[in-house]
Amino acid sequence: MMEEPKEQPAKAAPSAEEELARVRSAFVWRVTTEILTQLLEALVCDTVLNELEKESILEKNLARADKARSFIDTVRKKGDKACKITIKHLQIKDPSLFSQLRLNSDPSAQQDALQKCQPKLKSKLKKKFQRVFEGIAIAGNPTLLNQIYTELYITEGGTAEVNDEHEVRQIETASRKPDRPETTIRQEDIFKDTPGRHEPIKSVLTKGVAGIGKTVLTQKYSLDWVEDKANQDIQFIFPFTFRELNVLKEEKFSLVGLVHHFFTETKEAGICSFEDFQVVFIFDGLDECRLPLDFHKTVTDVTMPTTVDVLLTSLIRGNLLPSAHVWITTRPAAADQIPPEYVHRVTEVRGFTDPQKEEYFRNRFREKEQASRIISHIKTSRSLHIMCHIPVFCWITTTVLERVLKTREGGQLPKTLTEMYIHFLVVQAKVKKVKYNRGRATDPHWSPESKKMIESLGKLAFDQLQKGNLIFYESDLTECGIDIRAASVYSGVFTQIFKEESGLYQDKVFCFIHLSVQEFLAALHVHLTFINSGLNLLEEQQTTSKKSETRESAEKHFYQNAVDKALQSPNGHLDLFLRFLLGLSLQTNQTLLRGLLTQTGSCSQSNQETVQYIKKKLSKNLSAEKSINLFHCLNELNDRSLVEEIQQSLRSGSLSTGKLSPAQWSALVFILLSSEEDLDVFDLKKYSASEKALLRLLPVVKASNKALTCQHF
Predict the structure, then answer these.
(1) What is the spatial distance between Cα 288 and Cα 52, in angstroms, rounded to a whole number?
(2) Which residues lie within the region annotated Disordered (predicted)?
(3) Is residue 329 helix, strand or coil?
(4) Hey, is 246 helix, strand or coil?
(5) 3-state DSSP call for residue 9?
(6) Sign of the dihedral defined by the CA atoms of residues 380, 382, 384, 387, in that order
(7) Does residue 325 contact residue 331 with C-beta atoms inside 8 Å?
(8) What is the DSSP letter of 210?
(9) Is the model's pTM score more than 0.70?
(10) Alpha-carbon gap, residue 136 to 138, rounded angstroms
(11) 179 CB burial (10 A radius; 0-12, 13-18, 19+)
């Protein structure tokens, strides 16, 4: 009978004395005289060496290398305990050299440091992330994230290529997508491998339009780790925002130094290396990055000081701390800043699906009847329903409808985007009046102070929209007549509109809570300027309307010029701005802003001329996206005649595609793309068998999974 092989004893870790012997030549080659002197002084303090031994090492040897050899040999003769103390001091005095020598730091000491640091870090992150201010940054009523968090629709796949189309267009495209098979992913599984994948997922890029929930997604991921609900194999999560990092543009840090700077708990615990830990770095808001990301510039040493942009590129490439996981969030327009070869997984936050929208409103409105009324109202307005893909728009909607339902029982709810945003502005003005100025709810809400504030914010919104900026700094505010000392009042009063953020620094960063709010205020500024002074801010050479020109003629030119400007934009960057500007031309909407507007403009004849001008444009050969936005503009002007005409023909079965004008074809495409019916299978034969019909209905065919055509196609 064969003897079973005896189990080999586990190989013991090398002793500290053996470790110093192993690195002796490398230490002698690399250590500086300055570090050597510091080590000697530390060992004298710890009574490992005496003053005589220290002087002997420094003075008897003239060359630096001889001093270093003498130092190592003297310490090794003192025994293993002395060697351990020396290694510990080297880790603190010169972390870079310690890392290069790959010295075996005491595993039990590392575990002690982890146990000391992790609870403090988790406590800090819990305080930071457990409460959220929906839509706002530093004021208002905080809500527990776990109470209001509605699961977001996140898909895997796609590319990190740039998409500079207006984000509302992207939302509309997403809202049309049928329930086709897609790989969905939960936030806690963002780094988990998929079956059949051979390489681990180290870097993830998550795309999503503004307000879709990217930041809240990363906060929930961190909070679940903090509360021991998920990803307990991770030992550290370090969340950063690009806004915080922008402030450090001119400074230099090592990776360890950067972590110590933001998360002081790691420094206090004496952690000078992260190679032996599972670490996740989160970088939120790549689209706000003001650092020059050059992926040809990298470092490999976690203790070498360099600029923050080089640290980032090195970390993303995997040259620096290759064991780390990196998660970056961005708006689609900035996705191409990171070369695709350095991204292992691309995900997209699609916001809320239709059932998730309903879940959100039922969470916010506890009364079933009220929640049902709001949900059915939003479904009747396609533009509102589409925008509710964005969580922050759902929040704006609840803010408005909550107030409207309280003050107008049984009254009409806002149906257009312009109405919704006017109500939102009015709600904030009323809140400011009662909450901050100790006024009564019945007092006029447009005080001279709040009017000036809106004018300043409107100018800021328009000026920065022209430049393509969504993030502003102190100088931008000063240019618009906003006193930086009063900025806290602005953010404290109109918190729901304007955010002020300051992290570890005094430098403050400002932005509007959502791009759509910036575009609404920009449109309001252009409208107010024209009504009050006759100045058209959209013209390159800004001129006031001529004295000989009638008011009706000036208005006609103003709105037609705005339509032309929006159509000239290749990526639709003025689409939403145009909707708001035209919506503000209606007398009914101007009435809602009574008090802010000192005089009103736009007679019904002028509005009708704008409607006819848009219909004329629809008869041209426009892209589907441009046509769709013009129909949304007609909706803001309360004109649904073209759409209703085609809908009537569809209902009666009398639609003759052979006789449709280009504008009517556009209306048909708009109706089909806006339909709540699933576009999984589109039967083209129902409409026409001609090649012309196929070309006209191509956007609908593209949005469908399957199109049924005649055989000769």
Answers:
(1) 58
(2) 169-196
(3) strand
(4) helix
(5) coil
(6) positive
(7) no
(8) T
(9) no
(10) 6
(11) exposed
> Torsion-angle region of residue 520: left (phi > 0), alpha (psi -120 to 50) or beta?
alpha
β-pair partners for 535? 544
At 642 the three-state DSSP class reads helix
Q: How far is residue 348's CA from residue 212's CA, in Å, rounded to a whole number?
A: 10
CA dist., res. 287 & res. 147, Å (int)? 29
End-to-end CA distance of the chain: 79
Helix H or strand E encompassing 524: helix 515-533
Q: How far apart are CA 379 and CA 386, in angstroms?
A: 9
Cα 163 to its chain centre, rounded Å, is 15
Q: What is the rounded CA–CA span in Å between residue 667 and residue 643?
A: 5
- Token code pair at residue 604: 């019904």
CA dist., res. 667 & res. 661, Å (int): 10
Residues 6+ apart with CB under 8 A from 95: 254, 256, 272, 273, 302, 303
* CA dist., res. 241 & res. 580, Å (int): 31
Q: How far is residue 239's CA from residue 284's CA, in Å, rounded to a whole number?
A: 8
Phi-psi region of 638 (alpha: psi -120 to 50; beta: other; left: phi over 0): left
- Whether 446 contacts 440, CB under 8 Å: no
- Whole-angstrom distance, CA of residue 363 vs CA of residue 192: 30
Amino acid type, 589: N
pLDDT of residue 507: 53
* Structural tokens at position 345: 């997984």
Q: What's the pLDDT at 579?
A: 93
What ranges in 78-133 are assigned the alpha helix state H?
A: 80-93, 95-100, 107-129
- Copy the structure tokens of residue 418: 């312009």
Please, how many CA atoms are within 13 Å of residue 252, restricted to the half-sphere of its CB?
5
Residues of the chain with pLDDT under 70: 1-13, 104-110, 131-183, 195-199, 408-411, 431-445, 483-509, 541-549, 571, 599-603, 653-659, 673-697, 699-713
Give every CB contact of residue 595 below 8 A, 6+ residues apart in sequence.
444, 445, 446, 451
Structure tokens at 433: 């009046």
Task: Give the Cα separation of 574 and 538 in Å (integer).
Answer: 11
How far apart (Å, rounded) are the C-alpha atoms in residues 483 and 620?
Answer: 47
Selection from 69, 9, 13 nearest residue 36 by Cα: 69
Give the span between the Cα atoms of 425 and 422, in whole angstroms.
5
Helix (H, G, I), strand (E, B) or coil at 706: strand
Distances (CA, A) of 12 to 16, 177, 496: 12, 60, 61
The whole-number pLDDT of residue 399 equals 82
C-alpha–C-alpha distance, residues 452 and 490, integer Å: 11
- The Cα–Cα gap between 248 and 241 comes to 12
